[in-house]
Amino acid sequence: MKSFILKICLCFIVFILLSSCVAYANVNEKILLNEHNCVILKFDSEIKYVDFGNGEIDGNMLSSNRMLRIQGKIPEFNETTMSVVTSDGGYHQFALMYAPVIEKYVWQQTGTSYKLDSIGFSSEKTTHFICDEKITDIVPASKSIIADYADKIENIVKAKAVKPYFPQTCIHFVTESGYVYTFIVKPDVSPGQLTVILSSEEEITQSSQAIFKSNSVNEGQMKEFAKTLTTMKPFINDIGVIGLKMAFAMSSIYSYNDLLAFRIDLSNNGKIDYDIDFIKGYIRDKTDTRTTAVQETELQPVYTYYSKIKSPMILKAGESESIVLFFPKFTIPKKRILYFEVFEKNGGRHLSFPVSSREILKARAIY
Asked: Which residue among 30, 71, 136, 309 has the highest number of C-beta atoms inside a 10 angstrom radius?
């Protein structure tokens, strides 16, 4: 009898221990995905581990390291399971399923700190989003739309469509406080709303003020240095891309106080003018793996200098332009890589090239 009671007690203790181990586990929550839309997952704690299940799912962590963007890489991908472990010991498992229509654009572990709306984007007109706080992440789900900060203003984003017609998609804006604004984006030749105020308050006003980036070197100093840099002899001649009657290349990197200055040369070798829409840099993993979150981080220049072009941003046929982009000083690990991209307004001549961590370390110091 005592032996039987002892066995019952041991079983009860084991049950309690097992229950405590899995008490903080969310298993098999269903998330619908497709190749045109992405979903933001927001956790209460920092993400430590991600397994996407198969290579048909794309994803990356956002600035806070508590949010994860996921999206289908291909149409009608095979159903899979994604696992996430967070720093508080939480284990989360999700069933990722293909669906032509997305039901939920933001998943949150707790709370409801997000807003969902719809908007039309045009390839002829730019839409501006003005937030009442800093925007830390801009997450477009499709290459059919482009978005970037308005110059050096951290709470204003400009966005538009690359072409007049495209499949319905979405774009997310994440703020410094962790609030998520999501817009379902549809093609619209003549959008009715070109200025959107982002506010977590019920009363939305037009009183938001621009939040400018701060840096130790002022704009005048950067402008004078950039003028000098564009006249100096380039010392890099093997990083860039040639195609579509265009040449897009990096010719030098300089370290200037707490900044890195990249000289980028753009040449139009065709007979059609090139209307520059965006030039941007971003860092991402060299290879996508299914056992870690694929991270892509866009770099925001604190100052951009054009040697010849003033306004409008048109590179005439047969001409060249030198552009200097200033970024806060940074380095990247060997497993990550820097990319520069240029987008043509109302056109398809988009070019990009990679820059390795080794090349960044070759930056020449200017005092």
From this structure: 71
Cα–Cα distance measured from residue 275 to residue 258, given in angstroms and rounded to the nearest whole number: 32
Place of tokens 């299914």: 290
Q: 82-110 pLDDT, tens per residue?
A: 999 999 999 999 999 999 999 899 999 98
CB 339 within 8 A of CB 284: yes
What gap in Å lies between CA 308 and CA 312, rounded to an integer? 11
Which residues, other chains included, contact 9 with Cβ-Cβ below 8 Å and sequence gap of 6+? none
Q: What's phi and psi for 3, nearest 5 deg?
A: -65, -40
Model-level pTM?
0.59
- H helices present in 193-293, as ranges: 219-231
Joined together, the tokens standing for residue 173 give 């804006």
